[in-house]
Write a structure and sequence with these properties.
By secondary structure, this protein is mainly α. The chain has 4 helices and 2 strands. Strands 1-2 form a two-stranded antiparallel sheet.
């Protein structure tokens, strides 16, 4: 094991550090069509799923509070409607997270990486 410090960025054997963009570059990128497209791609996925999940969650809460008879209906053995819908909450949470990770990897990450690369290159 060695205790030698790594050479500073830009010295022999290491690539130079990327350029640090200033506030003007961030504002310029934020106002660009490419960034607007990235925001649209994120919002078109995130907003509808958020609204749908909140509605689904509130339905479960309302049914639990005001439809006790329905929620207590036995489906098989000791499994009732409330348990199945409650487990459905967990399942939809994981499903949405999985769908978002796929969407981000396919749609958002390439666009964000391209914007970041251009900013670091000083373009």
């Amino acid at each position: 094991m060695t205790t030698e410090a790594a050479p500073p960025p830009g010295s022999a054997g290491t690539p130079p550090a990327p350029a640090t963009p200033g506030p003007q570059e961030f504002v310029r990128v934020q106002q660009s069509e490419e960034f607007a497209e990235l925001r649209r791609a994120h919002r078109s996925f995130a907003f509808p799923l958020t609204v749908a999940f909140i509605a689904w969650y509130l339905l479960y809460v309302l049914l639990s509070n005001y439809a006790g008879g329905f929620m207590g209906t036995k489906l098989f053995g000791n499994i009732n409607v409330a348990l199945v819908l409650g487990l459905g909450q967990f399942a939809t949470t994981f499903l949405i997270a999985w769908l978002y990770s796929r969407h981000a990897a396919a749609q958002l990450d390439p666009k964000a990486s391209a914007i970041k690369a251009r900013m670091e290159a000083g373009e």
